Amino acid sequence: MSTKDYLEKDYYAVLGVPKTATADEIKKAYRKLARQYHPDTNQGDSVKEAKFKEISEANDILSDTKRRKEYDEARTLFGSGVGGQRPGGGGFPFDFGDLFGGTAGQQGGGSGGAGERLGDLFGGLFNRGGSSTGRTSSTTRPRRGQDIESEVTLTFTEAVEGSTVSLRLTSSAACKSCTGTGAKAGTTPRVCPTCEGTGAASRNLGNFAFSEPCRDCKGRGLIVDDPCPDCDGSGRAKSTRTIQARIPAGVGDGQRVKLKAKGAPGENGGPAGDLYIVTHVKAHAVFGRTGDNLTITVPVTFSEAALGAEIKVPILKGLPVTLRIPAGTPNGRTFRVRGRGVTRKDGTKGDLLASVEVLVPETLDEKSRDLLTEFSTATAGDDPRAELIQRARSE
Q1: 119 and 166, same structural domain?
Q2: Could you tell me if residue 170 is inside a domain?
Q3: Which of 68, 353, 358, 392 makes a 20 to 30 Å CA pair with 86?
Q4: 296 with 277, same domain?
């Protein structure tokens, strides 16, 4: 992609978010579009595949704080053109791909920041009629592979304890038929005679000479006379692979896990991109979760709550633990069982928060009814609502 295309393309519009969108809004918009246009769910649909690449490109820029800032600053700086507007009000009177040497907007980003691109800008701007020989185009430099995002659904226990999952990933990689050269098997590319293999050419504009990607080899530095039929000479093809990914213990629903260098392979010896896995956690029939603590509601009888008791409480994995509840325990009181919660990053564990729920029997036999009637008679002088009524009257 030329820098002109990079600056003129509205990545916010691609994701359907305003320029003021937060990181969460951008992430939500990308996920929604990615599910809609992902190649795995649209096999053979080249239009949706192209749309998926476009929204992935937009997400790569806008989800990275540094790259988003550079993108916004570049569009603000050059959005109205250099040295004035075109007739009719259009921006970009110069080809910014020429100015920046085609470095901006490259997938994966690499290490080239705004300072490096501006160095390319002025290095080309004040090259007064000089040759571009010896200047290497960014397309022939090692380039970092694209980041990939995938999703996985975990059980409650897998999320708390950690799990290894199998993921099927689809990304761009070197074409297997031509090993990335772009040339048909049995043939080899030749060095571009126009740019002498640099991938860059110089265009003279009066007192200035601007460096631009070579038009004959499109910046690759090589000419493919007999292109590979599988990749049409691009050297890149869609690759599907299955990997085993370790999800760390303690992940939450909707959390984004980063696995470094597990994304798309790089080009020209560049490093691989990263893999981001969005986790979806199923609910548990017994346990809940609050931060690093697990929660559970434990039923107790009226007599256990009134007289006190030792009760068995289940934990997520392993044998139940014994919990002692004191006499006079009210309904809803929460007890803490240390070290039986979610595993943290430092290896320690949160707690299990057990809340008691006093059960009221739906039916009573005659003996139980007589005993409760006797108890009610013995405690008839204790009105639990007397204080409540008194406070209500005093207000």
Answers
A1: no
A2: yes
A3: 68
A4: no
Please give the DSSP secondary-structure letter assigned to residue 15. Answer: H
Tokens at residue 252, please?
Answer: 């939450």
Give me Rg for the CA atoms of the chain.
Answer: 33
Is 163 in the same domain as 55?
no
Strand segments (E) across 155-235? 163-174, 190-191, 200-205, 208-213, 222-223
175 annotated ligand-binding residue: yes
The answer to whether 132 is a known ligand-binding residue is no
Global pTM reads: 0.54
Residue 153 in 3-state DSSP? strand
Residue 214 known to bind ligand = yes
Range of the domain at 190: 144-283
**Looking at the domain assignment, is residue 138 inside a domain?**
no
pLDDT (tens, 9 = 90+) of the chain, 395 residues, equals 555 566 678 899 999 999 999 999 999 999 899 888 887 777 778 888 888 888 988 888 898 888 888 888 877 765 544 433 343 344 444 444 444 444 444 444 444 444 444 444 444 433 433 444 444 434 456 778 889 999 999 999 999 999 999 999 888 788 888 887 888 888 888 888 888 888 788 776 555 566 778 888 877 788 888 999 888 887 778 878 899 999 999 999 999 999 999 988 887 778 989 999 999 999 999 999 999 999 999 999 999 999 999 999 999 988 999 999 999 999 999 999 999 999 998 989 999 999 999 999 889 999 999 998 998 888 877 788 888 888 898 87
Q: What share of the chain is helix, strand, coil (3-state, %, to 5)?
A: 30, 25, 45
Residue 228 marked in a binding site: yes
Query: How buried is 322 (Cβ within 10 angstroms: 0-12 exposed, 13-18 middle, 19+ buried)?
Result: exposed
Question: Does residue 161 have a known ligand-binding role?
Answer: no
User: Is residue 164 annotated as involved in ligand binding?
Assistant: no
**246 marked ligand binding residue:** no
Residue 338 lies in a domain: yes
